[in-house]
Amino acid sequence: MGVLEMLLLFASVFVAGMLFFVFKKSNPIYLKLALAFTGSFLFALSMVHLLPGVFKSESENIGYFILLGFFIQLILEYFSEGIEHGHIHVHQHHNHSFPLAMMAGLCIHSFLEGMPLAGKFDGHDHNHSLLTGILLHHLPVAFALVSMLSASGISRTFTIINLAIFAAMAPMGAIASEILGHTELMNISTYYNLIMAVVIGIFLHISTTILFESGSDHRFNLYKMVVIILGALLALLQ
Fold it and tell me: Would you put residue 123 in left (φ > 0), alpha (ψ -120 to 50) or beta?
């Protein structure tokens, strides 16, 4: 991933979070629909583009690494409290203490997702579609993060600082992966395919959690079905 793509990823996520201060509030329905769209996109992207690529590779035990990614995300959500798929938990305390565990879980999640952006995978360049998936996924998450921090009584300045940290995590993951991928630990193609397998597991956990959640309102579920179809169609065009 080039410098321009890193700047695009950082700036887009940062601007998406800053939009909260323009609208002053978040509509839970619109946020959940946006997340449903991105969840569908990630699921279809994984099934149609990413999974076939890693299983065609010569890397061994790909399935184990996909499972590893799935359970890594399961553990991370214990700390992040599910903000990746729209669960906003307001932390109101007398001293407005900062939800450090939530932020740490979210940042590790973003860092891991950015790691495959550094490389190519056995001749199949999935970077464009992967970048699109991560970008679409992080936009509503950034908005939800700022919404949660603001509602928890965190100052605007500190909220913006943490938004910038979150926006930087995926590019930092790509940079770290670029460095690790050129060490002598293993074949670079094998390394990138195993990292991609872990991220596929993360995507599958995030997307299925979003897709299987349903609202109590029938009209919302109809809208959700529509955006899910649109998200999958967009992934097929990648």
Answer: left
Give yes or no for a contact between 99 and 152, defined as CB atoms under 8 angstroms apart: yes
Per-residue pLDDT tens for 182-229?
Answer: 775 666 777 888 889 999 999 999 999 888 876 666 666 788 889 999
Q: What is the pTM of this model?
A: 0.86
From residue 2, how far is each of 5, 37, 49, 127, 173 by CA, in Å?
Answer: 5, 27, 21, 10, 13
Q: Do residues 148 and 83 lie in contact, with contact meaning Cβ atoms separated by under 8 Å?
A: yes
pLDDT for position 185? 61
Which SS3 state, helix, strand or coil, does residue 121 take? strand
- Torsion angles phi and psi, residue 198, rounded to 5: -60, -45
In the block, tokens 């993951």 appear at 173
Look up residue 126 and give its amino acid: H
C-alpha dihedral (60, 64, 66, 69), degrees to nearest 10: -130
Helices and strands: H and E segment counts in the chain: 9, 0
Query: Mind listing the pLDDT tens digit for each residue in 6-18?
Result: 898 999 999 999 9
Determine what percent of the chain is predicted with pLDDT higher than 70: 83
Report how far residue 87's alpha carbon sits from residue 183's, in angstroms, rounded to the nearest whole number. Answer: 39
Under DSSP, is residue 7 helix (H, G, I), strand (E, B) or coil? helix
Judged against a pLDDT cut of 80, whether residue 95 lies above it is answered with: no
Inter-residue contact 44 to 232 (CB < 8 Å): yes
Cα–Cα separations (whole angstroms), residue 121 to 52, 136, 205: 11, 22, 22
